[in-house]
Amino acid sequence: MPITAHNLCHEYSPGTPYAIKALKDVSLEIADGEIVGLIGHTGSGKSTLIQHFNGLLKPTSGWIQVQGVNTVGKGVNLRQLRQKVGLVFQYPEHQLFEETVAADVAFGPKNLGLGKDRLEQRVHDALAAVDLDLDEIGHRSPFELSGGQMRRVAIAGVLAMEPEILILDEPTAGLDPRGRNDILSHLRRIHQHRRLTLIIVSHSMDEIAAMVDRIIVMDQGTIHADGSPREIFAQGEDLRAIGLDVPPLTSLMLELQRRGMSVPTDVLTVQEARQALLQSLKGVDGDA
Amino acid sequence: MALFEIKGANFFYPSGEDSEIQALKDVSLTIEEGEFVVIIGHNGSGKSTLAKLLNGLLLPASGQVVVDGKNTADKQHYWPIRQQVGMVFQNPDNQLIATMVEEDVAFGPENLGVPTPDIVKRVEESLRQVDMLSYRRHAPHLLSGGQKQRIAIAGILAMRPRCLVLDEPTAMLDPRGRREVLETVRRLNREESMTVVWITHHMAEAVHADRVLVMEDGSIVMQGTPREVFSKTKLLQSLDLDAPDITRLGQMLAEDGYAISQDVLTVEELAVELCR
Lengths: 288, 276
Ligand SMILES: Nc1ncnc2c1ncn2[C@@H]1O[C@H](COP(=O)(O)OP(=O)(O)OP(=O)(O)O)[C@@H](O)[C@H]1O
Ligand SMILES: [Mg+2]
Fold this sequence. Notes:
The complex is a heterodimer of chains A (288) and B (276). By secondary structure, chain A is of the alpha/beta class.
């Protein structure tokens, strides 16, 4: 079942001098099994929007329907919704609370009525997915880990729920380059196996561009652009205008265009940039 | 005299009932006054632990850490070292406590017992240094992440430190915030010779450093200028680290037979080389 939002508005502290309209008339549809990247600078409304996806926040006006549940409806079972919609927060330390890493990761799935063996298997697999070893780290306190290790545990806790919709707010912040690649390729893998819907909130487009089908750009509480990564990247200057940095490779291409070379700006990876430049440089040699 | 002199430092965290984890293994390191040092390395490699050794927040189990001639293990140096070495952390929301920006910045010098008229002067000066003076009466929680980090930095500057240690100060920021914070700190380093130790997972932030240190499993395994470190492609790859995209692209084009240097670091440099 798709996620559908219709004229979704959200205002924080309504009726006070501090009132802030964080979302303004957002309408969108995310189909089952899509991988969507949500980008935008701080305060553009991304985090507010995703908290509507599992009913943590409710619209001030408009409505949203997730997995067939309209979260505004009376008597909605939010607990059930949250078992289907996993959300990894931006600050993982806010999500950790058990005494050991193993207990923390087991916390969510424990409520799903799994047998002991299956529960243990899930905890093991979820930790393995973030490159942590249950035997090595399971007995340690989550608060006595390095920053990046803590984030991995928080992600494992949500993976262990095996949600139908998985939403991650800046999943790679604080991870080393290997950890970033591992997490992203793991997400891609579980997406392929389970066809879950995957929504990744990120500041860095270059990181998610190669794995998402669609990028939604938010600015000032509205949807500023919505399209394939290539379509979005091609609008480099426009992104700069709303305070987003274009990735270094795009920025190189823009600079080369400015210097009169004919190169595309929608390159997503170092390899693609290399191919594009080889083409263009050969062309120049050919003319000479 | 070097500002930091670390000799053979070992550090252990207790883990469970009767075991421990060695987070630093025989680390020796000298940092000169005015240097801009970037530390990179895997999760759990010991970067934050090393950072906490620099201002005596943690003490080595063996070996020593000497800051400006003062051993951090010596109790009488506890406060002077805290004042001289300021720390900025990842999460901007956990570092600001007051309801108004200028109160927050005044917090440090107040604790040091600086007289009130001087505090006012210091607050103004520090906010100007991070280009946030016009926000002095704003509420910190309504600022952007990058602005919050600059306020946290101002709070440290108000204590007149010799060194800033920043542990992933940009990890939670958007690109604009990242740029703001990096530029602010680079300016402090350039114009006021502030010594800077900057921890990051973003290779692009290491490009302007005087020296890059790579940590792995509690030890410093590589160090040199960014050009030196990032041109050692093989060694970096063996550590599962990568040079910045621009450097890698330059290296690939060099392999393809184009005359591009192995150590281009910035978009401008590569654009110039490509258009020659
Ligand atoms: N409070 C603590 N108690 C016990 N062990 C700890 C504690 N903090 C860190 N460690 C362990 O010490 C080692 C070094 O951790 P440290 O935080 O220095 O790494 P780091 O390089 O900063 O990692 P990250 O990139 O994830 O921030 C790791 O094995 C970590 O699990
Ligand atoms: Mg750390």
